[in-house]
Amino acid sequence: MAMSGNKITLTEEKETLFIPLYSKALESKQRQPILVDTKAEAILAQIDYDFQKLRVPKKSRVTLAMRAKKLDACVQAFLAQHAPALVLHLGCGLDSRIVRVNPPLVPWYDVDYPEVIELRRSFYQETDTYHMLGSSVVDFEWMEAVNSRGPAIIIAEGLLMYLHETQVKDLFLRLQQRFPNSEIAFDAFSTLTVSQIKRHPSIQKTRAEIHWGIDEPRDIEQWGSGIQLIEEWPFSASEDIAKLGWGEQIMFRVTGAIDMARRAHRILRYRL
User: Fold this and answer.
1) What are the distances in angstroms from CA 243 to CA 21, 27, 28, 252, 255?
2) Element counts in the chain: helices (H) and strands (E)
3) Does domain 2-271 have CATH number 3.30.470.10?
4) Which of 88, 130, 257, 265 has its CA 20 to 30 A from that of 215?
């Protein structure tokens, strides 16, 4: 993958960051977009990469837009209720949440692998309040680079399913210790979805490995004292379903009526 005359190499697994970027840019161009993301459109135009080979299905494009919009809302709601506060965006990829949310002057940290942050710096500039940290999220030394110790809204979009459960648990406990009175919001697969996701065309192309899924969200409350589930949000709850075609609307409604299907992929939010 080349960009602006420079060659930046990502492993096939890390190429998964192009899936949400491409999906959000495409959705942003729709007549009735679920998510408006002009930054994603601008970045897409500057990257020399064959995005069509990712073979992103329309349903995935729609779901990724719903996911981003919901997590944007989680950030906005937390910042409206807590001052001072900070934002931690884990596994940020090339996502433009910092632009879409356009927060007041609060500390915001985007965290991802060093090679991803190197690419990200081609499109985003740090400021006195916006920072990019190049690190694996499970290399916990990155937390020491976060200057603020106020309560945080922590977003892990399209991230935790790539970790093993022991890593997810350790991450939760480390975040709770370092950033008490915080919230974390993320999307999660069921264990059945994890077992079947390798058939997804984009996953096949990037050869990414999915490890972690959860069926009962309250199991996470047992990981440590004070961890509390505060929201389980299925995609069938999205108000943007009304913007879709009748066939897609029916599909989401049917999915929402079946517990196994509703929990296949949803957003979870916890108090730490």
Assistant:
1) 21, 12, 13, 12, 17
2) 10, 10
3) no
4) 88
